[in-house]
Description:
8% of the residues lie in helices and 33% in strands. By secondary structure, the chain is mostly beta strands.
Amino acid sequence: MSPSRGHQEDEPDNSADSAGLFIFNLSIGTSTPQEIPGIWTSLPSWCGRSARPAPPASRRRHSRLPCSSHTCQSVVNQTCAANDSPCGYIATYIDATTNTAGYLSNDTFTFDSAQVPLVFGCSGASAGDFSGASGVFGFSRGPLSLVSQLQLSWFSYFWDSNDSSGDSFVQFGDDEVTRPPNSRSTPLLTNPLYPELYFVNLAGIMIDGELQRDIPAGTFDLLANGSGGVVLSTTVPATFLEEAAYDVVKKVLSSKIKANPVNGSALGLDLCYTMQSIAKTVPKLALVFDGDDAVMHLKRSNYFFRDNDTGLDCLTILPNRGLSLLGSLVQTDRNITYDMADAQAPQLIFDAGAAPPVHSLASMSMALSFGVWMVVLF
């Protein structure tokens, strides 16, 4: 896979196979910095069953939260068998089959040189596909997420489709947001049904610069009862559009590609072609958000996946009923920032097109490293 920079449309690559989940290194404890990779959602390996060795007792400062604690009662809201019994939890990610269970604990976490106390889940059991990650780090609006516990005013990330480049990062802080050049912004919405998630107002979709007016008005609206809307995700690679919008996008793309589609069910994808048949003919796609010129121009690899094993090029957009979801692939190769300094008017800031990573010098940051931590918005 080759890295892409700037706004130039790149040749198709197969970055989709590695862009679904994003992971980074982190230290736990107050001793001299030492990577302790055996972690679950901020979960030290010595919490539960792990093949990795536990750190010396002098470094272990974590302690279980009792069921009677305010944190346990306000977050987990469980019935205590005894006041001093551990605060148990079950957390579900991605789908109902991916979950982890254990007890809440606390410890000091180290980000760069900053050391902060955090409550986290100490896992004793897990199920499902965590793609080799030893832990899950939440950036949602939930009470135990990093955003809530550190009272962050913003966080941002850059997922590089070339995962060997080392350019990917997560950064966050409580200072003023640094806006990259050529960035756009759109309001972040709150869904009363899912208050911990990040919703946006997707106003429309453009194909080859033309707004698709056949998509019915209100297709992406977030309704007062919490149904519908468009949510952002870092754990689901593909993008899901409400059926009425998907049907229009699929029809227009098919008519412009002018090649015979093939069966892509082996990849779980709907619109597929042989690599040779669409080598140079994929139309350009852009997402139009609520805001002043808030258009996100996508690269080919943001919405088409090349699978070398099958020789297929497939659209990584699928239909869904009601809720639409913008997956991790459409977010690669651009700086994305969640600006929550104004709680009444939070903003999503994003690069209009593919761009190089932009670091904020005043922030805390973490370099991403596959195999250690998973970053979760939803």
